[in-house]
Amino acid sequence: MAVAELTSPATGAYTKTTGRLHPSQLSLSSTRLSDQLRRSFRPIPRSRNVKITCSVKYGLFFLCCQVQVPTVPAEREELKSKPECYGVFCLTYDLKAEEETRSWKKLINIAVSGAAGMISNHLLFKLASGEVFGPDQPIALKLLGSERSRQALEGVAMELEDSLFPLLREVSIGIDPYEVFQDVEWALLIGAKPRGPGMERADLLDINGQIFAEQGKALNAVASRNVKVIVVGNPCNTNALICLKNAPNIPAKNFHALTRLDENRAKCQLALKAGVFYDKVSNMTIWGNHSTTQVPDFLNARINGVPVTEVIKDRKWLEEEFTETVQKRGGLLIQKWGRSSAASTAVSIVDAIKSLVTPTPEGDWFSSGVYTNGNPYGITQDIVFSMPCRSKGDGDYELVKDVIFDDYLWKRISKSEAELLAEKRCVAHLTGEGIAFCDLPEDTMLPGEM
């Protein structure tokens, strides 16, 4: 038998934040509760001196709970329809408005797909710790996986539960995007099928494209109308285009393809060459596709505020070795590590979000794959292309206008642009633009996707 007792003395067992019982205030004695018991918790109306006594039997036996609580008021009946949450996060108590801590912000809902994967394993704990949205921003995590990863999702939720993050107020898990994406304000779409042996690039575009078409429809149906979407699953530029095309009620400007890891890698290589720490490198742009046609822009980048071309005078190194190193960094990492990057990808997702929720430093900018309509550079409309952006810290961004181009840069940009247009034709059946026609010029997929 296991006994669980929840108490709320007047000395402050209830938090004065969002009204949820802190994990440290939950006392469990005797044997560990089974997963079924965890999932059996349901929201209970706020009441002083609530006491729950549970008798647990498994297998052929039964689960019996005696709950001594006041009768549930009619106005609280709607709590019964609340989507399933996990463990201690299901213990929800309402506080009077005047008891809420005013210094904390309104809870925000963040969905993460591929939540049982390696990237998410690094990312989720950064989100829950307050590192991303700030030390006074409570969050709810909504974790999307597949039927095959359901148990792994429960394991992730257990680790989050055991970490006692005070800002993490809710965790829910599911395999249906229409349930998981309900009211989310941020959607971090990481999950995608990796490229298998012998798989044609067009096949990968189609398989993953279908995933992101469905997720776009789900976001369009149930997410916040101003949800910010960051697509990580590759090929991320075209997946982001598919997603936004299937979500016409959400501004196309709200969709991003992650190229921040490429930007970080480029900054690292310039810092190494110049003999400075990487925080001295600014104004770094990745143009184009997240593939080996991407263009790390050394022409506009700066080191200690000075143009890179004035600090590193070896133009041949910049055009050849530097560019190729950044483009193929992921493949080299796989050779060394035996698997694709996970921790650094998670860090770059954090960087990408923080660039949108904190003001961009004066004179600097960051890279993100965004919708090209209305861009000031002459890049073809209606694709997702990595470009330099600035933000006021409100989740929105504007494209940087004060950049310079030369023939070398334009030639490289045009190649990446042509590749994205070919990818767009290859997924026309998923964007509502007719019959797909694949004429991909060459296989420029990143090594990590093979």
From TrEMBL:
Alphabetical keyword list: Chloroplast, Disulfide bond, NADP, Oxidoreductase, Plastid, Transit peptide
Subcellular location: Plastid, Chloroplast
Keyword Oxidoreductase: yes
Top-rank taxon: Eukaryota
Single GO MF annotation: L-malate dehydrogenase (NADP+) activity
Cellular component GO terms, alphabetical: chloroplast
TM spans (from-to): none
NCBIfam families assigned to the protein according to its UniProt record, in alphabetical order: Malate-DH_plant, MalateDH-SF1, PRK05442.1
Assembly and oligomerization: Homodimer.
Name the UniProt record assigns to this protein: Malate dehydrogenase [NADP], chloroplastic
